[in-house]
Amino acid sequence: MTLSEIEHKHGFSYPALYRQLERDGMLAVGEYGPDWYKLVYPTLKDKPTLLLHADDFELLNIEAVAEAADTLRDADDYRQIDPAFRFIPFAQTGAGDHYCFFASSLHEGELPIVLLWHDQNEAQYLAKNLQDFVFHMLLISMADQDTYNEVGDEEFREQLAKTLGTHARYLTPEQAQVLQTLLARDIIDYEVVLPKGRKEAHRGLLTDTELTSLREGMIPYAKFDNCFAYSTAG
After folding, report:
1. 148: which residues sit within 8 A by CB, 6+ positions away?
2. Which three-class secondary structure state does DSSP give residue 137?
3. Could you tell me which of 14, 73, 129, 181 has the fewest CB atoms within 10 Å of its CB?
4. Is the whole model's pTM more than 0.90, yes or no?
């Protein structure tokens, strides 16, 4: 199925940026399976596809997008999504939550990005458009080195540099410059304050506080992190 066929079937128009990403091969992640990391990932890592190294983000190829979009609109789907809402998925988390274009909430020509939780009746606003979403996800990647999977400093920098190499053209010049400046920083250890006085150790090129400041200053969005119920059930 093509993007145009998906648009026609679901009655919306993709952002120009998403179409450009598709033309440029940035959505071509192959088909996930047991051998994807061994066979497909090595062919992508030097010229990363869209948010290839982002935490808990699995980009869907066009065939998977079409299938997931149909499932979300299926009246028999367990989520029982309100027919008034049109969610067009383009990626998912490891748990099965979907990153979606909120196609029934077009505002000033922009399609917001929301996270559609699979196990609770909530959709969460993440960004006012795809470009801002990508920028924010790259900031998150820079703030959080994957020490859990033992990604070392050199590999961390290399992943980010290669990602910026394929992603900068899809950002504003200011966004790209901010990321380039961050990439030149020293890697630091910092703590994230959690509820009840707990703290969690992190490592990256910027702190969570700096990340929040950059998000609020560069891509302000009044609805960020707000949630709404998407289901007609219950």
Report:
1. none
2. helix
3. 181
4. yes
